[in-house]
Amino acid sequence: MEIEDKVAVVSGGASGIGRAAVLALAERGAHVVVADVDEDGGRQTVDMAGAKGGSAAFRSCDVTKTEDLGSAFDWAVERFGRFDIAFNNAGISGEDLFADEPGNWARIIDIDLTAVIDATRLAVRKMGLAGNAGVIINTASLIGLWPMASAPVYAAAKAGVVNFSRSLAYLADESNIRVNAICPEIVDTPMALGLGEESLEELRTVGGILRSEDVAAGVVELIEDDSRFGAVMTVTILGGREYATM
Description:
With 246 residues, the chain is α/β, with parallel strands linked by helices. The protein has a single domain, classed as NAD(P)-binding Rossmann-like Domain (Rossmann fold, 3-Layer(aba) Sandwich). Helix content is 44%, strand content 18%. It has helices at 16-27, 39-51, 66-80, 104-130, 152-166, 171-175, 197-205, 212-224, and strands at 7-11, 31-36, 55-60, 85-88, 134-139, 177-184, 232-236, 240-243. An eight-stranded mixed β-sheet has the order 3-2-1-4-5-6-7-8, with helices on both faces. Strand 7 (232-236) and strand 8 form a beta hairpin.
């Protein structure tokens, strides 16, 4: 899909991977809705896109609320006249104490998996009504491809995103909507700061932390490459951008 003049909604666009994706899309001529609960960060992203000559607008959106997601997609059409691309990127990490009473770990499932499913469902419906070709990209993680003892619920959520996205490959033929997943290793984002500076510095020393821009480049590739549907792209320091064979 050509990105120029297309309309994209990016959740979690106030910082990190989402912000980098917004800027990459805007630089290529897309009109981008920055959907996030962080209004200050979201408006900063919009200003950054505008400073580069791009077109972007902020929309407050809590991805755990179906009405917010649906409203963001509807608003994209109202504001820019169409809706072509959804980058369902909002996510959290945190203490993954699954043996405790549902608390933070349940919120990880709500945001990292359930909200992705809901956003994809709504985006498919909205794109289908418009009758346009569409692309949906869901942010998973390298942790979604193998076990992680220190974060079992996060790993489960991201594995769910991977297989959910793969299972929708049929939509390319049925509705001209391509759904893919992107699986980066650890990215130097505000969310990664939860690991602690000592751990981050060690990973930087061995080249183990990606830049958000590295992941955004993968998002652009998945949008532009019409041959990719139900695909799982991995993004790593050593391997670059590759497609997982599963």
